[in-house]
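A reminder from the course coordinator: this example appears on the midterm review sheet, so study it carefully.

Given structure:
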């Protein structure tokens, strides 16, 4: 091997060591479920159109799975990543209190969860502390504001509650999350982003 070949190999090796470590780190491949969540997010963002102020992140609430399972997915369509959290549904949607959502309702006083696309508004201080106002964008959730359907933290939506009872508690139709996770919603979902809820059954 000639001197020039050896020198070239040494320079290449030194350059590789100087590069950021992230250049060599490959992203974990998405699961089929995560790909479907991102597809739902993109489809619903397109359907919502200009009513959204931000189109980088969407919340996808999949009420087709049990409440003990992380089913509130933060879908980042810019980075192609998904993070999943616990979320409770309404008492009117689960009268048996078995952890399964049986029905949706948009009716005032039903205490049920409503399906459809929402736009997230500003933070405010409510009964459960800092919460996020929601505006319904579909006929199936058009009463979100007058029904005070919001996203908020709640102790009945924690991992500890699942460990004790095998399911989450129930809300009055709101999207209730573990307080330990709720700051993620405040920073990532509020301020004109999409929240979409349906019985998707993605697992």
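Designed residues:
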């Amino acid at each position: 091997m000639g001197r020039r070949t050896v020198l070239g190999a040494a320079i290449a090796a030194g350059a590789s060591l100087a590069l950021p470590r992230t250049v060599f780190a490959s992203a974990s491949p998405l699961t089929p479920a995560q790909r479907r969540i991102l597809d739902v997010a993109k489809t619903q963002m397109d359907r919502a159109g200009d009513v959204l102020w931000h189109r980088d992140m969407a919340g996808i609430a999949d009420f087709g799975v049990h409440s003990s399972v992380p089913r509130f997915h933060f879908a980042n369509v810019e980075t192609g990543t998904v993070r999943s959290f616990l979320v409770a549904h309404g008492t009117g949607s689960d009268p048996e209190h078995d952890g399964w959502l049986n029905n949706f309702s948009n009716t005032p006083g039903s205490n049920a969860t409503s399906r459809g696309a929402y736009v997230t508004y500003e933070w405010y201080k409510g009964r459960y502390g800092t919460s996020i106002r929601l505006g319904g964008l579909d006929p199936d959730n058009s009463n979100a504001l007058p029904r005070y359907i919001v996203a908020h933290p709640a102790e009945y939506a924690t991992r500890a509650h699942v460990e004790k009872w095998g399911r989450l508690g129930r809300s009055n139709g709101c999207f209730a999350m573990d307080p330990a996770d709720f700051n993620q919603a405040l920073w990532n979902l509020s301020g004109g982003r999409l929240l979409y809820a349906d019985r998707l059954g993605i697992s």
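The first helix runs from residue 3 to 18. Residues 1-26 have pLDDT under 50 and may be disordered.
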